[in-house]
């Protein structure tokens, strides 16, 4: 999610304004973790993506949890031999993804309807990843408001410009 969030940040902002005209700026800062790096870049761009206070931070954390579970499902399916996969664990990770989607739909639609924040970007990237790697998961079922929101977000120029290759 970090790479796509970074690329979206670059599409939304001026890379020179963010200090990315020289990549060593990030290396000299000795920062890591997607949330910290996104906060650093957002601050360099004027901080607007961080508005919304704790709600934005919790929304971003929810998206990170959703993404973590989706990535773990991908690793399990792609890297572990079929005979060594654990169905109960897979079910648990799937439940986390679907539970996060239900929570977003029930609790966060008011925030997602507001001005763009790093939380919006994180949720958009996480849902796009689920669609890309787990197209049959069915996260839209019962989450109509979230699905409608994502429909409008995934067609934004920054999301279109950062889609993974179709191969």
Produce the secondary structure layout:
Blueprint: H1 2-12, H2 24-29, H3 34-44, H4 53-79, H5 87-107, H6 109-112, H7 118-133, H8 144-154, H9 157-161
Helix pairs in contact: 1-3, 4-5, 4-7
Strand content: under 5%
Number of strands: 0
Ends distance: 19 Å
**How do the SSEs run, as a string of H and E?**
HHHHHHHHH
| Helix fraction bin | 55-70%
CATH architecture descriptor text of the largest domain: Up-down Bundle
Number of domains: 2
Approximate shape:
globular
| Overall pLDDT confidence | 85
The total of helices stands at 9
Radius of gyration: 16 Å
Q: Describe the main β-sheet briefly.
A: none
Find the structural class using helix and strand composition: mainly alpha
Query: Residue ranges: pLDDT <50 for 5 or more in a row?
Result: 14-24
Question: What is the CATH first-level class name of the largest domain?
Answer: Mainly Alpha
């Amino acid at each position: 999610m970090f790479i796509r969030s970074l690329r979206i940040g670059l599409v939304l902002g001026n890379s020179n304004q963010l200090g990315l005209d020289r990549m060593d700026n990030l290396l000299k800062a000795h920062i890591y973790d997607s949330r910290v790096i996104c906060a650093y870049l957002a601050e360099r761009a004027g901080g607007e993506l961080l508005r919304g206070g704790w709600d934005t931070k919790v929304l971003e954390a929810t998206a990170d949890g959703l993404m973590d579970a989706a990535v773990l499902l991908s690793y399990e399916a792609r890297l572990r031999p079929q005979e060594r996969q654990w169905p109960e664990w897979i079910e648990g990770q799937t439940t986390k993804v679907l539970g996060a989607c239900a929570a977003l739909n029930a609790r966060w639609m008011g925030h997602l309807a507001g001005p763009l924040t790093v939380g919006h970007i994180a949720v958009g990237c996480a849902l796009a990843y689920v669609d890309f790697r787990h197209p049959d998961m069915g996260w839209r079922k019962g989450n109509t408001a979230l699905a409608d929101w994502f429909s409008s977000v995934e067609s934004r120029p920054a999301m279109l410009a950062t889609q993974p290759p179709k191969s």
